[in-house]
Amino acid sequence: MTSDPRLIALYDWLATRLPGRAFTLAPASADASFRRYFRVSPTDGGDTLIAMDAPPDKEDCRPFLHVARLFGASGAHVPQVLGENLEEGFLLLEDLGGTTFLERLNASAGSAASELYGSAIEALVTIQAASRPGDLPPYDEALLRRELGLFPEWYLSRHLAVALPEKDALVLATAFDRIVANNLAQPMVYVHRDYHSRNLMVCDPMPGVIDFQDAVYGPITYDLASLLKDAYVRWDEARVIDWCVRYWERARKAGLPVHADFADFYRDFEWMGVQRHLKVAGIFARLAHRDGKERYLADIPLVLDYLQRACARYRELGPLAELLDRLHERTPTTGYTF
Fold it and tell me: Do 156 and 292 lie in a common domain?
């Protein structure tokens, strides 16, 4: 017998959604938020389902439901909502399976990458092609800067225990201004905001898209940067560029407002990645030091490597690259290419 009152309440609610059917609950996935997911397995052998537990005082199910409708209407494969209880914070969802892209990549030693990333790029273009202003909150300057602020607050101050001198704080502030200016100048579309190997599922049709409740209307390169500069899996630069080209070609055919020159598009992609990786380093540090989820610290080195390599390629971000090298006692990275 569990002593978890929310799990008891979830079980009781599910019993009303599945009258007369016995079932078991088992954890389905870990989450960086307060949400929990359970796989509902009917003992009569019927299809498994997913139950979401989102405590109403900490999470709001309504954005999930709204984005599920938007992305589903675009043609993307999102879980069908089979039941909802907003007062208690419970949802009953279609089960898109138990295998993420990351798990399939690991199991196949990367041999499944072409198929998986091809489907992810197609789905991304599908979602973006359905974009309309006003459907989602804007990924505006305030939100971009709030995210960037996680880096000095949680990664530098809390994780590294570093207090930047005034000249270095100015370097960081100047870089933030340049990054935000680039991000806001990009064309705007629907942005999943966490479109990567742990939130894409191996199912039919592929991919299944999950964890989209924080979606916004923002820069067109954001989700591509999340996908191809993933905090949990590394690809060599030649492969990333190849996938970027494939996305760019499909996006142009779909009428999406990408740059006519691929070099300009790739620059935006890299600058968007810089914003994301500054944010992610801060988030991972916060998860460890505030929430006790220390496993995310192991993913920070890859995030910082993406960040330092991208900054070192652009003269405008050179001072930030040099600052990052000093903070991590690294040999200065290669000279600028742009």
Answer: yes
Q: Among 33, 65, 94, give the residue marking a domain's end.
A: 94
pLDDT band (50, 70, 90) for residue 20: confident
Please name the residue that has the structure tokens 């489907």. 119
- Count CB atoms within 10 A of the CB of residue 334: 9
103, 125, 130, 234, 252 from 246: Cα distances, Å? 24, 11, 19, 18, 10
As given in the structure block, the two tokens for residue 51 are: 């139950």
Q: At what angle do helices 318-327 and 166-185 cross, to 10 degrees?
A: 130
Check if the beta carbon of residue 308 is closer than 8 Å to that of residue 265.
no
Convert the pLDDT of each residue in 237-247 to its tens digit: 999 999 999 99
Q: Which CATH number goes with the domain that contains 24?
A: 3.30.200.20
ω into 56 cis (within 30 of 0): no
Q: Are residues 167 and 64 part of one domain?
A: no
Q: Which of 94, 117, 141 is a domain's end point?
A: 94
- With the CA atoms of 286, 290, 291 and 296 taken in that order, what torsion angle do they form, in degrees rounded to the nearest 10? 30
Residue 213 near residue 263 (C-beta atoms within 8 A): no
pTM of the model: 0.93
Q: Which domain holds residue 28?
A: 5-94
